[in-house]
């Protein structure tokens, strides 16, 4: 709020004799007494009612004695127990009238700025000329110069600054003008938000959280750090170059193959396999792997890793020979051999086991894992199912399921060797999420935290 302009509006609305300046009572008491005598002689009009003179004095005191905002004045006057209903009504009416004049002057000032100030930047980030009359155009005035932005560019600038960081530690920065490195004022941010809110149907959760925190970067970091971290990871995955992305994808594949004992179930990628197809197939796996690696809560970690492992099972089941090359020799020696790539794959399903049970019931609790939908697909001694099931930390085990399986096996007529093989295959460390320690910042999915002893895979948490 521009208090100087707001005070001028008050003096003009109430038709005061002159515009009184702010005075500190504690430092100059003699000047205060002279000013009070002047106000008493000049500002109490006989034509006004007693209540109107009281409201006029409240606003004059706000201009010359109080160093508070207009909304603090409004709250202070309305909430006082000594004000009558008539005084409250008169105060609200005058406040609305003053606000109307104040915002009219603000709007007129912005129109004048756009008429007389030079245009510094008139194109967007793609070097396309911006139409200033478009509803998606944001005009910002800084240092007596005009800068044109599109709403999409402005939202990207805000999100990039709020989700910036290093080594996946989010450190929000002040939102600045990229052309002059000047920080946007809060009034500019409010104008951007309202223009985005009322002129688009696009939903940006980051700026919504920023608005809820009153555009305070410390507050949004304290209250919505989890969301900022997820957006930071998405930005990293979407903007990594293809060479580094291929390396990261192969690291994820090697990690999965390390957990699979039987090499027949490994995902083998040929050196000549097309990179574009590999990126298209495994980029969602890499993105979800990064979200699991830097998950901040147990619930999110178990939920995401369960879906991640279930998608690995479906991927291997759909095409276990993905990434391999078939060399077909040509009958004629003149021509070279024909290479055929096995590149069929199934897309990553983020909602692999999403059910709408809440429509009929609100008390059905879905399990952490989604493996019950694969129990009929894979036998209990299937190596893929067992080793993928053991991807998570040691507390993420099917203790109850394995106990039921062993009990049912004990009543069946099988030889001892068969029973021993099943029990040895399902040997897990039994633990519960409540008994486990809190997860550290370093992920449990890193290779240096894995130990493999006697065909038992444990992941330190």
Write the topology of this structure.
Layout: H1 3-13, H2 29-42, H3 50-64, H4 70-79, H5 85-116, E1 119-121, E2 137-142, E3 145-150, H6 151-162, E4 165-166, E5 169-170, H7 186-199, H8 205-212, H9 217-223, H10 225-239, H11 242-259, H12 275-293, H13 298-318, E6 325-328, E7 338-341, H14 383-389, H15 399-410, H16 416-425, E8 450-453, E9 456-459
Parallel strand pairs: 1-3
Antiparallel strand pairs: 2-3, 4-5, 6-7, 8-9
What does the model show?
The protein is mostly helical and 461 residues long. The chain folds into 3 domains: 3-116, no CATH class; 120-233, no CATH class; 240-459, no CATH class. 49% of the residues lie in helices and 8% in strands. It is built from 16 helices and 9 strands. It has helices at residues 3-13, 29-42, 50-64, 70-79, 85-116, 151-162, 186-199, 205-212, 217-223, 225-239, 242-259, 275-293, 298-318, 383-389, 399-410, 416-425; strands at 119-121, 137-142, 145-150, 165-166, 169-170, 325-328, 338-341, 450-453, 456-459. The strands form 4 sheets. Strands 1-3-2 form a 3-stranded mixed sheet. Strands 4-5 form a two-stranded antiparallel sheet. α12 (275-293) runs antiparallel to α13 (298-318).
